[in-house]
Amino acid sequence: QVQFVESGGGLVQPAGSLRLSCAASVRLFNIGAMGWYRQAPGKQRELVARIGSSGSTNYADSVKGRFTISRDNVKNTVYLQMNSLKPEDTAVYYCNRNPPLTYWGQGTQVTVSS
């Protein structure tokens, strides 16, 4: 069973930056497209960034120009660089295949607050 372990979250002030990491238990090459998702309190989980196996990327309008997704197929790790963070970015962030597998990791909490 594929496992994803997210890390790098924390408390940051508005306009600050964080870099999230997602380690996969299997070769990313075999998984294909990967995504970063987030779930804020009382809201449904949403896809915020996607990276294809070839490196092509797509972003939700709410994060476009601020977030950058990347992948390292040697390290089997996916990253999410988040800049110019806003309070509305506060959520638990998860990585998964896109479309997602049934299994979800524990996620990493990102809190943007002054």
- Overall geometric form: globular
> Which consecutive residue ranges, at least 5 long each, have pLDDT under 50?
none
- Secondary structure tally, helices: 1
Averaging pLDDT over every residue, what do you get? 96
Residue share in helices? under 10%
| Strand line-up in the sheet with most strands | 2-10-9-4-5-6
Distance between the termini: 40 Å
From the structure above, extract its key features.
46% strand, six-stranded mixed sheet, globular, 114 residues, mainly beta, four-stranded antiparallel sheet
Q: In summary, what is this structure?
A:
With 114 residues, this protein is mainly beta.
Task: Give your account of this protein's structure.
The chain is mainly β and 114 residues long. It is built from 1 helix and 10 strands, in the order βββαβββββββ. It has a 6-stranded mixed β-sheet, with no helix packed on it. A 4-stranded antiparallel β-sheet has the order 1-3-8-7, with no helix packed on it. The radius of gyration is 13 Å and the shape is globular. The model has no long low-confidence stretch (mean pLDDT 96).
